[in-house]
Amino acid sequence: MKFVKRISLFFIYPISMFSLGFASNMALMEYFYPGRENKNIQMKAVADEASEKMPAGENAGDLTEDSARESIAGDGETIGGAIGNSMGGTVGQSAEETMEVSLRDEPIVTANTQYVILKYNAVTEETVEDEEAAPDKFMGLNRDKLVREIQEYNQNPSLTDLEEGFSFMELVSFSPARVVVRKSYEPPVWEDGFFLINENHYVVVYDKSLSNIFMNTDILVENLPESLQKEILSMKYVESEKELYNFLESYSS
Prior knowledge:
Oligomer: single chain
Shape: rod-shaped
Radius of gyration: 54 Å
């Protein structure tokens, strides 16, 4: 009997503890999630009722159809995303390549560019063509930048151009191989008659008004005949340009 009691207690005690734990768990679930079990029961009942009303195989068909739709939709999104990414990447790459090509192929002035100057005399209406190396400040410029650079030069021309009666410069044609500009000059018109004057022991030619230097020479006054020296010290007058050049040819070294 004692052995039977021990066995009974051995089974009864765990079962009692398990029952107590289960009841406590259900009480806690109902406390924290009120009505949850009722909802699960109701949902299961509705599902069972719907299954009984549907013909056999319909549920499986619906599930299969829904799965197929979801699969197609997912594949469509995947394909659309891939196409979008591909097109976006292609368009972006094409834009970058186009920009690189346009920048690389833009015509500019280089060291190999032929630089031609057309010097136009507005008084005689004569044009002289001259070819020389392009100025360093023109290197690497495209057409628009070269036009702006020429406009700046017109505001501040070189002293040499000013002495020749510089008026303005303009761009005639532009290409990487050949650039043509035209410089217009309005040289002063000299009246007949010049004065030969001694300045720092050298003969200097002035115009008739004695206000402008017509020419500097390398003729030393002391190397001239004594009579001619006296005339130059007294400002020798020369009536024509022809007479002036005869004098220069005779006494220039």
